[in-house]
User: Fold this.
Amino acid sequence: MASAETTEVFNCTPDQFTKIVSDYEKYSEFLQEVKECKIIKAEKDRKLVEFTVSVVKNFKYNIWLTEKPGSVTWEFASGDIFKTLKGSWKIESAGDKTRATYAVDATFNMFVPSPVAKALVSVNLPNMISSYHKRVAELYGR
Assistant:
């Protein structure tokens, strides 16, 4: 299993950050590797979302995302590359800002050496976090 985790402080309120994190269909507007996100099914507090991403090559996967106060969690439903995929955003107040912890665990449906799997899961993490900071500034001017 490959894992990655990071905690970052964002210059917005927890509600504002949650709105960005849970607006899946807008991900392609600010996350470079995401080509398309479609909500396939919506239930009470969770959504089945299809992601089309480009990391080395294009692939698709579906995950169930569950939205609760202070968190968005996800788990693998189906797709091209992953055997398992689960993760979360833990979102909490940090004064007038937001402390958000992103965590992800993945296994692949093909043999991938452990160091390569770790790199695949974590290589885009700094760029992704930077993209969320830019999105916060774009939407909230902070």
